[in-house]
Specification:
Layout: H1 3-33, H2 64-73, E1 76-83, E2 86-92, E3 109-110, H3 115-128, H4 139-142, H5 151-154, H6 159-164, H7 198-202, H8 204-212, H9 216-228, E4 233-237, E5 240-245, H10 247-258, E6 262-263, E7 266-267, H11 272-278, E8 294-295, E9 300-301, E10 310-311, E11 323-327, E12 331-336, E13 341-347, H12 357-371
Antiparallel strand pairs: 1-2, 1-13, 3-5, 4-5, 6-7, 8-11, 9-10, 11-12, 12-13
C-alpha cells in the first residue's frame, strides 16, 4: 500500500470516529434536555394548556362520576390529572379560600406540607450553584446558637439531616412548628432517629437565604416559579412558611418533577444525582421518605408523631413507583413516572391527619378504575 492511500484510510477512520462521537454526544445532550420523552409543556404566561380526553386514552369513563362524587364528598377544591403533560381531568368545586365566591382555575389555595418538596427542590438548585453543600453543618449558615443544643451537638446536624427529618431534635415539644432556639431541644444524636418535625424543615428557608444572599422567596421565584410559569407566593403563617398558588401552578411543578427537573429542554435542576436522591429512600428508619418527599412502594413506613415502623406502603392502591408531595388537609402532588402521570388535589380536610395517607389511598382506589384499560 502506498503512503498516500494509507494516509487517506487513516483520515477516513478519524472522520468516522469523530462522526460517531458527535452523534453520541448529540444523543446524550438530547437525553439530558428531555429525560422523559413525549412530554407536553404548557407555555408560560398564558392560560393555554393542551388537553386530551379520557376517552381518547381509552380510560374507563364510566368510573369518572364515582371519582367525582368521592372528591366532592371529601371537601376537594381542585383536582387535575395530567397524562404526558396534557390535562385529562380538571375539576373545581366549592368556594374560594377568600371572598366567598366559587373556587376556579384562577383561585389560590395553600400547599401546606406539600410545599416541603418545593423547598427540597430549591435546596438542590442552591447546591448545584455551589452556594451550599447538603453535607455541611447547618450552623455554617445559621451561626452558633440557632438551637438550645451544645455547640458539639449542634455541629453534628447537617442540611441533609434537615432534608431527611433526622436532626435528632425533640419533636415532642409543645409547639412542633416553633423555630426559636428554646423550642429546638436535643433528644438524640443526628441521623439516629426519623421524626416528622416541621421546625427543622422550616429553618431550611433561612439556610438557603443566608447561603444565596437574597430572600428565600426572591430566590425561589427566579429559580423555579418564573422559569416554569407558575404563579404563587410564600406567606409566613404563624411559625410556618406556606406556599399559596393556583392548582395549575401545582400541576406545573408536578410536571417538572416528572421530567426529572427539566422544563421543556431547560435544566432547572441539572444536578440529576440530587434529583434522584429526592425520590429514593434517604435514611434507614423510614424507607418511605426521600428528601422532603414521600415514596410509595416500600415495604415499611413511618408516620408523623409516632416512632412505630408499619408494614406496607403509603398508598397500596397507587402504582409502586409513585412519589408524592403531601400536605395537611389533603394537599397532594402525585407523580407516576411509569405512566407519565401527574395528579394534584387541593382542598379542605378529608380527615384529621397531618399527612393524608388514608385519603390518598382511597382516592387512588377510584382513580385506578378510571385509568384502567
Amino acid at each position: 500500500m502506498n503512503l498516500s492511500k494509507k494516509n487517506y484510510l487513516i483520515t477516513m477512520r478519524i472522520i468516522s470516529l469523530v462522526l460517531i462521537f458527535g452523534l453520541f454526544f448529540v444523543a446524550c445532550k438530547e437525553n439530558t434536555s428531555n429525560p422523559t420523552p413525549n412530554l407536553y409543556f404548557p407555555p408560560n404566561n398564558t392560560s393555554e394548556w393542551a388537553k386530551i380526553s379520557p376517552a381518547e386514552l381509552g380510560w374507563n369513563t364510566a368510573q369518572i362520576p364515582n371519582l367525582r362524587n368521592f372528591l366532592i364528598s371529601n371537601n376537594t377544591r381542585a383536582f387535575i390529572v395530567l397524562k404526558d403533560g396534557k390535562i385529562v381531568i380538571e375539576e373545581y368545586f366549592g368556594t374560594a379560600l377568600t371572598g366567598g365566591g366559587a373556587f376556579g382555575a384562577n383561585s389560590s389555595w395553600y400547599w401546606a406540607s406539600a410545599g416541603k418538596t418545593l423547598t427540597g427542590f430549591l435546596v438542590g438548585i442552591a447546591q448545584q450553584e455551589k452556594h451550599l453543600n447538603i453535607q455541611e453543618k447547618t450552623s455554617q449558615y445559621l451561626g452558633a446558637g440557632w438551637s438550645s443544643l451544645t455547640l458539639n451537638q449542634e455541629n453534628q446536624i447537617t442540611i441533609r439531616h434537615q432534608l431527611t427529618m433526622t436532626t435528632g431534635l425533640d419533636d415532642g415539644v409543645a409547639n412542633k412548628d416553633c423555630t426559636d432556639p428554646a423550642c429546638l431541644i436535643y433528644l438524640t444524636p443526628a441521623n439516629t432517629r426519623w421524626a416528622y418535625h416541621n421546625a427543622p424543615y422550616t429553618i431550611l428557608d433561612q439556610v438557603v437565604q443566608n447561603a444565596v444572599g437574597q430572600s428565600f422567596g426572591t430566590y425561589f421565584n427566579a429559580k423555579i416559579r418564573d422559569k416554569i410559569g407558575m404563579d404563587g407566593f410564600w406567606n409566613k403563617t404563624s411559625d410556618n412558611n406556606v406556599y399559596f398558588s393556583t392548582p395549575r401552578a401545582m400541576a406545573r411543578f408536578g410536571l417538572l418533577l416528572l421530567n426529572q427537573g427539566d422544563w421543556n429542554g431547560e435544566a432547572i435542576l441539572s444536578d440529576k444525582d440530587y434529583g434522584q436522591a429526592m425520590t429514593q429512600t434517604s435514611q434507614n428508619f423510614n424507607l418511605a421518605y426521600g428528601y422532603l418527599t414521600w415514596l410509595n412502594g416500600k415495604n415499611t413506613l413511618m408516620v408523623p408523631t409516632l416512632q412505630t415502623v408499619f408494614n406496607g406502603s403509603i398508598s397500596p392502591n397507587a402504582p409502586a413507583d409513585m412519589y408524592a408531595a403531601m400536605g395537611k388537609n389533603g394537599q397532594l402532588i402525585n407523580v407516576v413516572p411509569s405512566q407519565n402521570l401527574v395528579m394534584i388535589r387541593m382542598g379542605d380536610s378529608p380527615d384529621n391527619s397531618l399527612v393524608p395517607f388514608t385519603f390518598q389511598d382511597e382516592l387512588w382506589a377510584r382513580l385506578k378504575l378510571v385509568i384502567s384499560q
